[in-house]
Amino acid sequence: MSARLRNLNPYELHKYLVNVYCLNKKGSTTVLGRDTSRDRTDLDVIRENHKFLWEDDDVADTWERQLAKKYYDKLYKEYCICDLTRYKDNRVALRWRVEREVVAGKGQFQCGSKHCTNASGLRSWEVNFAYVEDGAKKNALVKLRLCPECSDKLNYRSKKREVKRLKKSRKKKKKPKDKDSSSEKESSDEEESSAPSEPAEPTASTSAVEAGATNESSWKKGVQEIEEKSREEEFAEYLEDLLL
Fold this sequence. Notes:
By secondary structure, the chain is α+β, with helices and mostly antiparallel strands.
């Protein structure tokens, strides 16, 4: 080592001694640490480029905007989650639900308030959400499912529009009249009116003919139609109950 130091010029020797001193000094290893003040995670990038609503004409021209748009496409935009902490100031924060909230039923089968877990007496509200984004004022109609207590907080300053599901009335199908049966009925009435007051004793041949006529009329009348819902109609009604 001494031979190596003897071969160094004064500047190289000074540099070597300073580096050895800095590295061996207590706490000096922090000098070698990388500057992390400008580091950003994916979540930071999404927060910087996030939009509540992406329009069709919005172009994701950078990788940051592409990442934010990809995150937006994975959100569930049927119901919102709200923060009613400042409801007295008429300032309500809204955001879309994430996957874990959809799986848990938060915002649809549980109260959509951020700090409430009540699941009884939920009501649907349509809210005109006014917000400022990129320096411009925007509006969006969103839906909320809230319990009675949180509904009162939401309507503290102004009454919101409540969304109610209209039940469809089932229309009964009218059974078409059978012309053959009506003609048979008229002919049988005429026969009864023309028949004598004292009926004759039926023979074996006449009873067989009457039995055959009865069976033929029953086949002509057919089985009464019973209205049944198709699988598509039942599935549509189930989705209406689920997404109200």
